[in-house]
Amino acid sequence: MVTDDKRKNLVELTWTKIVLGILLTVTVSSLITWGLIDGLATPKTAFTTDTNSSVNTIDHINGLVNTIDHMKDSATSLNSFTGYVNNRVDTLTDSTQTHFDEVEGRMTNDETNIDTKASTADLNSFKNSVNNTLVTKANSSDLVALQNTVSTKANSSDLVTLQNTLNGLTITIPSGAINANNCANRFIWTADVPYQVTSIVFQQSVVEATNSGTTITVERDPNGTAIGSGYSLLTTAINLSSGITANVSFLATLNSATSNLQFAAGDSLALNFSGLLKEYIGCVTVTLKRM
User: Fold this and answer.
1) Average of pLDDT values for 262-290?
2) Which sequence spans correspond to the domains of the chain?
3) Any idea which fold 167-290 has?
């Protein structure tokens, strides 16, 4: 038989065990929970650190990607520019080569021509002749002789002789055709230096029959003087009907006044007709000497 005291002690023991069990459970649970919390906190911190590091790494990677993209764009632009430059260089090279080829062709042709001409006997002979002449003429005796010749020929007597020779030169002035279509008053010559008339000759193949009173006068007209107002070179006008003969030259008589016959530079020779012609065909030739 269990007594009340024993029952009471048993109950108290049971509650003691229960309380101890609860305390032990709470203690163990607390320890376990703290350990879990501490264990979980450490991975979280590490995870956070790793995560931040990864984010930074990703940012760097993104920066590198952007840099690579820029480099690709730059490379594309550089390739385009390089292609343009290469095209321009090729064009200039082709053009330059064309010009060089053209110049080279011309130089080759010129060189060939020069070589051909320079190899001829004529050029060699000419060269030798020139060289010999230069050597001969360049010595002092030749130079002295030349100087003496120039000095001798330049003296006054030689100049006077030359002047007299020039003054003695003569010229002839033809009138051109004189006929029914060419019987108008006209100038036929103008003096460039002083001259004097020495002869006037008429020649005709047909004499005038219809207009028997037609005459001709040859005259000197100073510059600015009209025909008919100058100085007659003849003693009298020549009748082209009765004063001449067909096919026979006629030497006219010159004016006795020498001043009438002398032309100054600028004076003109003229033909002055007094009427018309129908049948006459002929000409006049005037001879002058230089004064």
Assistant:
1) 98
2) 1-137, 167-290
3) Jelly Rolls (2.60.120)
